[in-house]
Amino acid sequence: MYSCSRIARGVSRHGPMTKCALKTATTTSTSTTAAGASIPMWTQQHATIHTSGNRPANPVTPKPMNPDPRENPMVGIAPNKDVNVAQRRIADFNLTGRVFVITGGGRGLGLSLAEGLAEAGGYVYCLDRNNKVDRRWEEAARRATEWGGQLHYRQQDVQDAAGLDRTIGTIADTHKRLDGLVAAAGVQQITPALEYRQEDAARMLDINYTGVFMAATAAARQMNKYKCRGSMCFIASMSGSVANKGLLSPVYNSSKAAVIQLARNLAMEWSPINKLDGTGGIRVNCISPGHIITPMVEKNFEEVPGLREKWEAENMMGRLAEPHEFKGACLYLLSNASSFMVSPPPPCCSPPLPLFLS
Ligand SMILES: NC(=O)c1ccc[n+]([C@@H]2O[C@H](COP(=O)([O-])OP(=O)(O)OC[C@H]3O[C@@H](n4cnc5c(N)ncnc54)[C@H](O)[C@@H]3O)[C@@H](O)[C@H]2O)c1
């Protein structure tokens, strides 16, 4: 599980780095950016040093330079967000016929994650408090059918625990199964700690923490009922491990810390299979993203001038994320590919990180 986190952050220690150096060396020694600037890259001399161990007597090794940090290095390498990954799916990531619930799936990160699961063939039910969907949701639902998946919408507030239980129960009963839950519904409130009112703190925790907990227990009931070895992904945040500079949101950050700890506890409680009745086998994990440009964050930018620039400057990648950049992590956690991944470790590295699977 620890090694999965390392791989997700691109710090694999052996093969991939060697392959990368080799490939570059045999193709080119420079690379041209979109702006036309020439960037020195690894040379044949690097490849000799890294792969054979025959170090020349006086090696001259030009130092690699960083590309423009605001440019997404995946552009031109990975399919863009309009190209469907399902065309190239491998069996472990295939979700055909599986059923998923995503709270907060009406927009923002939740909608992108829902689309990712549908692209892999899943039937995905987006639960959200709004009584109707917007144009972006409708477009995502139309795209999903092109790839064999489906997006459905159900109005459901996660603060209504009884309603949540009924809605998830009805979905599971319809398909006679429930394979996964993504708990993404969440709210943010920027207020200095000394001005925080009790009712605001209670509301924040009711949505961001209790809402996740109630969605998880409702889903686990159905997974146990239909003996599905389901998987859950809670959307926490790097704010659960660090206090974000420039953003006064003490209760939001605490609520995300609580979500991370909840995931650890539920993973411990639910992941073993009960040999007597066949229930259990439910994996629980978190994703703790860094800053993503969603409607929630765009509101933060309106409220706090200069916040975007500050976050970009503080981020080690020099930019903020787009929601679709988390589809792969979520698909991994809800598919067979992560069958041995549960129970998050304590944070072991220095944020801010682009993404932390925990
Ligand atoms: N945007 C970021 O930078 C960022 C970073 C880390 C984690 N997150 C987390 O990702 C999740 C999604 O956030 P987002 O940025 O897409 O925000 P968003 O506001 O764009 O989307 C949140 C969705 O949750 C829904 N929601 C809120 N309260 C609800 C309730 N009581 N019941 C049902 N639905 C409810 C909203 O209607 C909305 O559709 C949140 O949990 C957020 O804390 C966001």
Automatic annotation (TrEMBL):
Q: Which UniProt keywords are given for this protein, alphabetically ordered?
A: NADP, Oxidoreductase
Keyword Oxidoreductase set for record: yes
Q: Which InterPro entries match?
A: NAD(P)-bd_dom_sf, Sc_DH/Rdtase_CS, SDR_fam
Which top-rank group of organisms is this from?
Answer: Eukaryota
SUPFAM superfamilies reported in the protein's UniProt record: NAD(P)-binding Rossmann-fold domains
A Pfam family found in this protein is adh_short_C2
PANTHER family for this protein: BENZIL REDUCTASE, CHAIN DEHYDROGENASE_OXIDOREDUCTASE, PUTATIVE (AFU_ORTHOLOGUE AFUA_2G15740)-RELATED
* Similarity comment: Belongs to the short-chain dehydrogenases/reductases (SDR) family.
- Give the protein name, as stated in the record: D-arabinitol 2-dehydrogenase
